[in-house]
Amino acid sequence: MKVPGKIRTELTEMLGIDYPIIGAPMFLVSYEKLAAAVSLAGGLGTLPLPNFRTVDELRRTLESVRRCTDRPIGVNIHLSGKFAWREQMAVCLDFGVRFFLTSLGDPQLILDAVHGKGGVVFADVVSLRQALRAREKGVDGLVAVGSAAGGHSGTTPTMILVPYLKAKTGLPIVAAGGVSTGAQMAAAIAVGACGVVVGTRLIATPEARVAKAYKDAVVRADPDDIVTSDRITGNPANWLAESIRVFDERPDPASKRWRDFWSAGRSVAQTEEVRPAGEIVREMAATYFEAVRVLKGTLPGEDPR
Predict the structure, then answer these.
(1) What residues form DSSP beta bridges with 89?
(2) Distances from the Cα of 297 to the Cαs of 5, 42, 173, 287, 300, in angstroms?
């Protein structure tokens, strides 16, 4: 699908990308092929650093991404102390990563190093309390994770959380949760977001490193097939109900059983087939323009066609 042009927002200006679309850094889903495909299409592909058990494995993955594209990429870094985040950050900076999304720790730990390389640090948040704490630490922006998001999520709908956090913090806000179409992206930007995170829709792609059964389940599911549970990780998260039906106890962090638990958000409603990630990103951008055109047609003196 042809895109009329670039979309200009605070996020695209900040990161040097064509469209304000971030491919979600999904645990055990997002690896080099998915990240590269999203970035090549004009969005921002990302990698979740907990996917990599060693720094060497991370380095090899970044080398693979860079063989595919020199476009901007990002990472989700966990600062809880369970990972060698200092070494991970250093490798990422060496490979030109300039977007860091922090989770489970103090974002201030990486600010100087990332800013020194011209990068930005955003924080995942699900509430105003978390958002204000992140702003106090000096982050450059926030990813507002609404109740429809796959994996760990908040309890407030995205369309309410985004303008609320924007008004209370004044920071750039990226919307996450329930966004998988251009019209939904237009709605998020209309209420104050400067970009969106797309996760569930990108599970159903050839580039996602998950079993075919997982991809098929996402395509097959409807919103009622998504359940919220804190039993799996200890924190509220959204899952495909069929994948946690036989859950008995939380597996060891290194266990391969984690691949049997399938996270997904309620945007399964708009996920109807497995398609290449690049096509999805470009289609979102193109239909964003269409949604804006339709909205413009509702104004006095404008042609509604």
Answers:
(1) none
(2) 20, 27, 27, 15, 8
Spell out the domains of the chain, with CATH numbers in brackets.
10-215+269-296 (3.20.20.70)
Strand 226-229, strand 237-240: pairing:
antiparallel
In order along its 305 residues, the chain shows pLDDT tens digits of 789 899 999 999 999 999 999 999 999 999 999 999 999 999 999 999 999 999 999 999 999 999 999 999 999 999 987 889 999 999 999 999 999 999 888 999 999 999 999 999 999 999 999 999 999 999 999 999 999 999 999 999 999 999 999 999 999 999 999 999 999 999 999 999 999 999 999 999 999 999 999 999 999 999 999 999 887 778 889 999 988 876 655 555 555 566 778 999 999 999 999 999 999 999 999 999 999 999 999 989 776 56
Q: What is the distance between the alpha carbons of residues 28 and 47, in angstroms, rounded to a whole number?
A: 10
- Strand locations in 17-150 (E): 21-23, 45-48, 73-78, 99-103, 120-125, 141-145
Query: Can you give the pTM of this predicted structure?
Result: 0.94
CA dihedral 245, 263, 202, 124 (to 10 degrees): 170
